[in-house]
Amino acid sequence: MSSLAYRTLRSGLGLKGSVRTLSSTSSSLSNYQHPDFSSYLNNRTTEKTRNISYFMVGSLGLLSAAGAKSTVESFLSSMSASADVLAMAKVEVKLGAIPEGKNVLVKWQGKPVFIRHRTPDEIDEANDVDISTLRDPQNDADRVLKPEWLVMVGICTHLGCVPIGEAGDFGGWFCPCHGSHYDISGRIRRGPAPLNLEIPAYDFTDDETLLVG
Amino acid sequence: MSFIASLFQRNSIYVATIFGGAFAFQGFFDVAVTKWYENHNKGKLWHDVKGKFLDGGDEDEDDE
Lengths: 213, 64
Description:
- Chain B: Belongs to the UQCR10/QCR9 family.
- The complex is a heterodimer.
- By secondary structure, chain A is α+β, with helices and mostly antiparallel strands.
- Chain A is built from 4 helices and 10 strands.
- Helix content of chain A is 27%, strand content 21%.
- Chain B has a domain at 24-55: Cytochrome b-c1 complex subunit 9 (Single alpha-helices involved in coiled-coils or other helix-helix interfaces).
């Protein structure tokens, strides 16, 4: 039974008892309608194929490296100073960049700090005021370490707006919210504010550097 | 192709190119994505509407 089935299969394949290697290109099987794969085959040299593979592998590596780099960066940036550390930070200001008669606003612990390089005229003006007439009597000398540098927290003592520099009736600061006028020493002169502008703790580390905080 | 192929001749150059390319790619990618994002959201971003709010007056800021 099995012998008959084998013989039938052999004759059906046209092998006629001889042993041949099966090959799709063999001319002896030309009666078999096999598909033409030649359009799928490339004619590239080995070297070119290898270069393409390397290019693809390299491109994937490049993208992975960029991804890995930004992942590492996000971890490293989480180690940088956090908001509570920054809130207690000191601020260093280079005074050489501030010309005479100019205001500079720096941010210190989330608050604006006014730094004014006062002219000699302004220093005289601040000292000429009769402090007994003031609402919050304070000598100009008590408000500055060096007369030419006025450093104040730029928050109105009334309700906390930020006053505008070089404005107001007294040549100093003017708060636009409710009209408080401060003079060139930051003292309250007119308006609803009860106190002079606050002086932060600061120091001159050298002739050119101011350290607020 | 010969320039690119010259990068594959030594592994040290190959790896160095990949790492260097990653740095260059990241800068380029950041710029491209930011540009696309700003173009996609044109008219809604802060620097587009800034003038409208800052010139319009501070009638909402009445507390001192």
